Amino acid sequence: MLKGIDPLLNADVLYALRAMGHGDDLIISDTNFPADSLARETVLGEVLRIDRPAAEVVRAVLSVYPIDTFVDDAAARMEVVGEPDTILPVMEEVQAEVFAAGGPKLVGVERFAFYDRAKSAYAVIQTQERRFYGCFALRKGVVPPEEG
Questions:
Q1: Fewest beta carbons less than 10 Å away: which of 24, 51, 121, 134?
Q2: Gene3D superfamilies of this UniProt entry (predicted)?
């Protein structure tokens, strides 16, 4: 255990989050997402796991991870097929965590476009979220220099 670090953030996840640079994407997926096969195409090359619901994982990640403020799609959700404007409860819960961390509104990304974004991401964290469409992309921002 470490002081000040959410215990959900295991060593492999912390390594990946620290290694990522500005503009790199992190995918947080539900348990049905093809995380292992798509993660093989990412920079990290392997799937990471945190066995908790999506919103809890997002909260833990955002406790140490800045969201990009230079692009409009820094926080995204996979759209419901055929219903791009539908916002499911899992999406509402994750949106609340993103807002609580000072992040933007989640933008919708069509399912196959989301898969493409996942393939070019730095890393994929698969959660134990069993609700459908519990898949999100968070683009890393910067940590500003200390004032003074």
A1: 51
A2: RbsD-like domain
What CATH number was assigned to the domain covering residues 11-139?
3.40.1650.10
- Please indicate whether residue 25 is annotated as part of the active site: no
Residue 148 pLDDT greater than 70, yes or no? no
pLDDT tens digits along 59-71: 999 999 999 999 9
Long-range Cβ contact pairs of 110-118 (< 8 A, separation 24 or more): 110/79, 110/84, 111/78, 111/79, 111/81, 114/76, 114/78, 114/79, 115/34, 115/38, 117/25, 117/27, 117/76, 118/25, 118/27, 118/29, 118/33, 118/38, 118/39, 118/42
Check: CB of residue 137 under 8 Å from CB of residue 123.
no
Task: Verify whether residue 51 is a known catalytic residue.
Answer: no
With beta carbons less than 8 A apart as the criterion, state whether 31 and 125 touch.
no
What whole-number distance in Å separates Cα of residue 86 and Cα of residue 148?
46
Catalytically annotated residue among 65, 115, 122, 133: 115
| Of 30, 68, 122, 133, catalytic | 68
85 is catalytic: no
Among the listed residues 15, 22, 72, 116, the single catalytic one is 22
Is residue 78 within 8 Å of 114, Cβ to Cβ? yes
